[in-house]
Input
Amino acid sequence: MSEPLETERMTLRPITMDDVDLIVALDSDPEVMRYISGGKPTTNAQATRIVKMALGHRWLGFDKATSEFIGWFGIRPSTAKSRELGYRLRREAWGKGLATEGALALIAVAFTQPGVDRVRAETMTVNTASRAVMERCGLRFVRTFHLEWDEPIEGTEHGEVEYEITKAEWEEQRAKA
Output
């Protein structure tokens, strides 16, 4: 599953242990981490653990024209038949459609795996930009739910949202495109 991917504007390559510094740098921007940790940066030790857990289901995106690091895109197992979509981009890459472009590539990866019939994604209710990416990718709103947090960040009182797309819905959307 972890092979390089190409989109119109990006090269996506599987994450490796050599990428810890890129994750630390990405997660050092308080705005990037706003809806994840309330703006707190990820430490090197945390990034090392994250990368170890992400091996095999996370790709790093690089601009084809400049080779600049854009961010990461992930599609990890959620259940035997379901995958969870995730992405995190450098602030400089926001608002250019790159999150949607990378997410669509990984949704396609998920649905080419035998037995996968659903892709889901979650974000904070107040994270309207991430929700818009999910909607542009064809995912539909499923529910709002509330989690208990040891250290709640601004907006957690509004809950989390879950979006999903089934393989049948994805195939139908592709047929129309």
